[in-house]
Amino acid sequence: MLSNTPGNRKARMWLLIPLWTTLPITTGLAFTEAVETRSYAVRAVVLALLWFGWIVGLFAVLVHRTWALTAMRIVVPLSFLCSLITLFASHVSIAHALLAIVTIGGALILSFTPTFAQQTVNGLAYADEERFVCKIPPSLLLGALPITVVLIGIGLSAGPLLIAADNTAFGVIAIVIGFPLSVFACRLLHRLSKRWIVLVPAGITLVDQWTLAEPVLYSHSQIVSIGKSAGKNSQDHVADLRLGAVFHSIGLNLDDRVSLQLRKGRSTQKIRTDCILIAPEDPVRFLAVYNERAKLLNR
Description:
299 residues; single chain; 9 helices; 8 strands
């Protein structure tokens, strides 16, 4: 595994670009062979959907925007699922199927690294701030997230495929129901991409629509300490924003209790806390950047 040095972080990012760019070459034979026995209309729809996914992914790896993180979290797993399906298609060469699985699998691993997340969410960041994406909650990563991604794929593809297979009535119904539901699911997943811990000149801003009613800023003067564990004197008044992502999490210890509006479903709950637990995807880099800023502030 590559170490988390700046050079290796850049290497991972630059490896993802050629890997995704060359997917039509490395996976084209497997996907073409998988649908060669289908009707012309079905082949055309399948290949059009695959090209559409590839183009979306291409823009995502080249354009550093928050939407790109959401797009890759949807497009790449769906592409990997399609590559797995080719392995069981009778007309697909095993070598071609394995090549598709390996190349898309590599893109899947790289697109879920903290490096890619940091590149995308900081595309529109101000020059004096740095955004750190929060970890995906394990309960979502291992359950609801892959299921939602699959349902998005079904919602977007079922209608056109049914129409191509001469099931026009069911195809129209699938489009009318599936497209809006897929858009709604994409918007939900996009909220995961906008869970940030932002280092700003004044201190730390927490932006998280899943756990907080509104963004909150804690100035450097309020922060007593920050590290991989919470202060012992604060354990009775902890605000846990990690959503279960406890591995390598960080404790933000404050000089006094502050009010915090937590989101609880459709309602909010007001608490007072002097310790906030957060879970950036790259805690090592987060602490390094924060400590560097703190040193410059204290000069």
